[in-house]
Amino acid sequence: MRLFISEKPSLAEAVAKVLPGAVRKDGAITYVGDDAFVPLAGHALAQAMPDAYLPDDVPLNKKGNKIWREQDLPIVPTTWIMEPEARLQRNLAAIEKLLKTVDEVVHLGDPEPEGQLIVDEVLHYFGNRKPVIRLLVNDYNETKVRQSLANMRSNDAPEFRAWYRWAYAQSHYNWLFGLNLTRAATLRARALGFDGALTVGSVQTPALKIVCDRDRAIETFRSVPYFTMTARIEHANGPFIGMWKASDEQAGLDDAKRLVDGSVAKALTERLSGQIASITDYEKAERREGAPLPMSLNELTVAACTKFGCTGAEVLEAAQKLYDRPLQLTTYPRTEVRHLSEAQHADAPEILAALRKNLPAMQGVIDRTDPSLKSSAFNDKKVDGTSHHGIVPTVATADLSGLTPLERNVYDMIVRSYLAQFYPPAVFMQTKIEAHVDGERFLASGKTPVSLGWREVYAPVEDDAAAASADADGSEGKQHLPAMAQGDAVTCAACTLQSRETKAPERFDESSLLKAMIDLHKFTTDPAAKARLKEGKGIGTSATRAGIISELRERGFLEPLKGSKTKFMTSKSGRGLLDALPGPVKDPTMAGMFKIALDGVASGEISYEQFIERNVGFITKVVTGLRTASMNLPVAPGVPCPKCRSGQLRQLKSEKGPFWGCSNFTAEPKCSASYPDQDGKPNFQMKAKPAKGFGIKKVEVA
Ligand SMILES: [Zn+2]
């Protein structure tokens, strides 16, 4: 008998459906013929919180938790304790029982590192010794599930061990980083009179810093006026507009090579107007452009957020629903791969037939596909060694009327990027002209479509962005360019100056922040870091970034920009937190480098022990630094403590209402002076009953 342990119920159902034999339910177990299925629902085991590792003599607060103390930091578990989740207790008990009797275990986690960990950690917890094989399901459709069942591999395969090491090391790093630094920062802030929690996360905090840096750049931005110059150039075949390009030696330029000197600009137009000139370069060539690759979760999220103004978390949720049972309309969404396997090419006719049924309104564009065309997306070398591929539609047919507008839009986007693979390339005529007028260079370029090809069915969002930036600098005009040849004589009929102003960078919205987290290399000036960050794909993963942004909003660190539906900025508390934290904790480049180190653990380049040791060293240094860090936080004015004379009395909250306690409560020697509150001031006539562990707030850390 085999025991299938799946990451979630829908995955178990999809596999159980294709196996032969009678179905029988017994509590958390579903038997199908000779096989048993027990589903989980995410992590069945949770990392124990710090209390499990702290000594027993740490005083407790009112809730019975050990109080936070500087001397206990950093908390570094030597043996990690896992605690069963109450909601999955029944499932865990069933697994424990079955592991004693089955011949073999089938690991049915999602095909990525987190999914690997979710099932592996349960097997470790029960000290499993039975052989384990790994089943990877990317597509819930029956034929694909059967194929996956025929291709199961040992769970000891290097790919799966690498996934496991990645997720395992990451979970410990996040624990060490988040819990220790949140406690250290909060304790320091509290000693300085701040009544609140300073939550710190290894990806969350650097992401917040990216937004804050941009906000401050905008707020300190001073617009610089400058000029651009165009010329109306007349050729025997017709006129066109050329854009002036300054030479390096040009007088009157600023550091960014913008023409800022008005008198130089005016003199130039006067000198050049009416001059005889010549065409120094003329290029006209047909260009062919193949369809963009199908989308990974990154592209899908950025594109959908840009087009539909939604959040990344909403896109992931929609993509997950399209993939999951009962719809099964698209393949596994949490993929970082865009290519498809060559075997998937043969699926095209069947998928197209399903799309005809699902999307009658798209009949025309589906009919014009040619399933014999094989785009560059179908490439075994590019999907080699990964169990993933780009997100594509499946052969499933379903009633789409129950979909939300966003689910419908996301499906449409996935379908169109798939259909584009079966269209010919887009063809256009690219023209480039260079003219010299009395030693000055003028450029013009144009793009004329010859045939739309795949663009008939799919419009990538990058096009909109490119069009917007082209309009802004006016270089890629939509003008008709006359035919000509190099060496032709022309006249510069008139030169015109345009007054422009440099613009502040844009505030972030969901899609631009997601992009920034991926394209982190664009935000660092260190060339060595740049190259590595690009390779490491920034901070966070495609499956976690959107959730991290949502969390920053929920915590109130990000707030909506007034007058905008999609843009946001850092809040006062978000900035206060960042300013209070030392550089390395919030530096996005450091966070990116950490992720690269994690890839090193997965590949075996560095051991898990080395990785943890290095990070514990770093965290210890930060914790020590935080003990004496100065912080600029909104703090209510304190009252000198009459008892110890060195602490400050601060207004604190208890269940019975406000009271006043000494800031030396956790100091050595400690002062437990406390007074009742009277109209916002300490009442020195009456002694309040000292509350155990006052002001200690439990903070949930991602
Ligand atoms: Zn005191």
UniProtKB/TrEMBL annotation:
The keyword Heme is annotated on this UniProt entry: no
InterPro entries xrefs: Topo_IA, Topo_IA_2, Topo_IA_AS, Topo_IA_cen, Topo_IA_cen_sub1, Topo_IA_cen_sub2, Topo_IA_cen_sub3, Topo_IA_core_domain
GO biological process, alphabetically ordered: DNA recombination; DNA repair; DNA topological change
One Pfam family linked to the record: Topoisom_bac
E.C. numbers: 5.6.2.1
PROSITE patterns hit by this protein: TOPO_IA_1, TOPO_IA_2, TOPRIM
Domain Toprim: 1-141
Superkingdom of source: Bacteria
GO cellular component: cytoplasmic replication fork
Catalysed reactions listed for this entry: ATP-independent breakage of single-stranded DNA, followed by passage and rejoining
Keywords: DNA-binding, Isomerase, Topoisomerase
Listed GO MF terms: DNA binding; DNA topoisomerase type I (single strand cut, ATP-independent) activity
Domain Topo IA-type catalytic: 160-623
Enzymatic class: isomerase
UniProt similarity note: Belongs to the type IA topoisomerase family.
Matches recorded under PANTHER family: DNA TOPOISOMERASE 3-ALPHA, PROKARYOTIC DNA TOPOISOMERASE
Protein name per Swiss-Prot or TrEMBL: DNA topoisomerase
Organism: Caballeronia sordidicola (Burkholderia sordidicola)
